[in-house]
């Protein structure tokens, strides 16, 4: 797949469909049994990509016994960035006022933001986000999506997974997968047109049924 810079691509499908496996393969931490994956012109997981690719896992990736600022500065140092870069990342995710708080004292939504701050350190060219809004309240989900589009507006390519179909409409491009198979790769509008419905949940179901009845 090829996504232009400054775009948000949604990887959507039910739990267990293979979203995380695909994302891990793109980042380079998943063994690929056959074929190959190229990211920004380099083999997935290769050394030149370490500063170019940010990855946010489903589980929080920050240390609970450190403050938000300490976490951000630690991750910045790992990539050779200075304290000012860490502070910008904290501000970008809206945690400037909580920078001195221990991660252990943060709400679940704030922890997700702290993890995101570490993932966007240095403004990576590709940002891979694995279900970043799962379990978040509607207001926080909306704020996070605004942040994703802000990052895309600054030139980043965003690949974000979700099993919540109402988030599909927030993306420029959709990859719909089921049981490891790609069943759609198009814009939200084109997916709706192909399925003959404006409801993306219903569109996904119709595409699954069409795949099941298609001749082998």
Automatic annotation (TrEMBL):
Pfam family for this entry, one: ABC_tran
Protein name: Multidrug ABC transporter ATP-binding protein
Keyword annotations of the record: ATP-binding, Nucleotide-binding
Superkingdom to which the source organism belongs: Bacteria
Keyword Transferase (UniProt): no
InterPro entries, per database record: AAA+_ATPase, ABC_transporter-like_ATP-bd, ABC_transporter-like_CS, P-loop_NTPase
Molecular functions (GO terms): ATP binding; ATP hydrolysis activity
Annotated SMART domains: AAA (SM00382)
UniProt organism field: Phytohabitans flavus
Residues annotated as domain ABC transporter: 1-204
Keyword ATP-binding: yes
């Amino acid at each position: 797949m090829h996504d232009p810079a400054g775009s948000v691509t949604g990887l959507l499908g039910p739990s267990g469909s293979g979203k995380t496996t695909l994302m891990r393969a793109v980042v380079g931490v998943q063994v690929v049994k056959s074929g190959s994956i190229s990211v920004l012109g380099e083999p997935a997981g290769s050394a030149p990509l370490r500063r170019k690719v940010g990855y946010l896992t489903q589980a929080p990736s920050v240390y609970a016994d450190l403050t938000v600022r300490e976490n951000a500065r630690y991750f910045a140092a790992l990539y050779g960035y200075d304290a000012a870069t860490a502070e910008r990342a904290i501000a970008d995710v809206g945690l400037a006022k909580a920078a001195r708080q221990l991660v252990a004292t943060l709400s679940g939504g704030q922890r997700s933001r702290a993890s995101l701050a570490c993932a966007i350190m240095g403004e990576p060219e590709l940002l891979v986000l694995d279900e970043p809004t799962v379990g978040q309240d509607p207001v926080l989900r909306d704020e996070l999506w605004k942040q994703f589009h802000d990052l895309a507006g600054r030139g980043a390519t965003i690949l974000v997974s979700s099993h919540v179909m109402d988030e599909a409409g927030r993306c420029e491009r959709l990859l719909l997968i089921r049981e490891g198979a790609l069943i759609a790769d198009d814009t939200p509008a084109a997916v709706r047109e192909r399925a003959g419905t404006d409801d993306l949940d219903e569109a996904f179901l119709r595409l699954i049924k069409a795949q099941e009845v298609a001749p082998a």
